[in-house]
Write a structure and sequence with these properties.
Blueprint: H1 4-13, H2 16-20, E1 26-29, E2 32-35, E3 47-50, E4 55-58, E5 64-66, H3 67-75, H4 79-90, H5 99-126, H6 132-140, H7 145-150, E6 153-156, H8 161-167, H9 177-184, E7 189-197, E8 200-206
Antiparallel strand pairs: 1-2, 2-3, 3-4, 4-5, 6-7, 7-8
Length: 211
Amino acid sequence: MIDKTTIQRIMDATDIVEVVREFVDIRKAGTYYKGLCPFHKEKTPPFTVNEAKGFYHCFGCGAHGDIIKFEMEANNLPFMDALEKLANKAGLPMPKFSKEHSAEQEKRQSLYDIMELAAGFYERTLYLREGAQGLEYFRRRGLDDELIKKFRLGYAPANNALKAYFGKRRGFFIVKRAQASIFASFAGELYFFSNHIGNRYAASQFINKFL
């Protein structure tokens, strides 16, 4: 498994503003850069990039993350492909592994990628019409946007939307039965992702089933 230090070195060597500008025009506005969101259609610019802290956030759809997550979402790439693309952009070498190690890494990474994409999907859904009841619940519990983003809180709609979402992603046309059952159990619930490993979330834990 690629170590956290290597991941951080690649992130530090790349500019999130330059990466985002490959997809959408963003302009300096105080301490942030602002523009239209590349992940949903909107007439006003709700999309912001914090260059100093290295993250992006959309106040319209709730998209949020670091430079690696943006590369994954914008290009429909799994984690390692996105990381390698950023490493090449920065002129940094990627670690080389044996065939056996690479096969095991690919197997593990596919699960990380699925969990990361699911996390992003649920985070965005919380701020859409489908997640309004969930967001209202968090508000009643005294959670503001900063805490919601920090702990990656989200909402899983009960309409099989995640399966349809994966069907549109490159490399996720087929979801194994065991993996599909995991995400089916999320339906109609609020959640947060835990087990943080090198900027990746590998497991989930429910907050409260309220529907």
